[in-house]
Amino acid sequence: MSKSAVPVNLTDRLSQFSELWSQKKVAVLNDYEVKLAKLKGEFVWHTHEDTDELFLVISGRLTIQLRDADVVLEPGELFVVPRGVEHCPVAHEETAILLFEPEGTLNTGDAGGPMTKVAETLR
């Protein structure tokens, strides 16, 4: 069986790390990365000027603060933050998410700072 024929088990991949706010790349689709992350607490306000950002909640609950409203996501729900829209993810409990965004997209967008991390690849 070729490597490309092996499915990615999200539960297994999530069990491989406990670090919060650190994206882990689990697949690549064309020029896009599929990433997992565990979140708890509040992130930083930031913008991605050149790309939309898809958040899919696997477990827990995620609030995506926008300047004009909050979007609350439960497990199985997703939301796309449009490019250029300032946002701040908040998780009051540990929350597992899947992200879909272009390769090389920084987690902190234009904000930078100490929470900026390059996505590591999980195998």
Automatic annotation (TrEMBL):
Pfam families: Cupin_2. InterPro entries: Cupin_2, PKS_Associated_Protein, RmlC-like_jellyroll, RmlC_Cupin_sf. Residues 41-96 form the Cupin type-2 domain. It comes from the Bacteria. It comes from Streptomyces durocortorensis. This is Cupin domain-containing protein. CDD domains: cupin_YdbB-like.
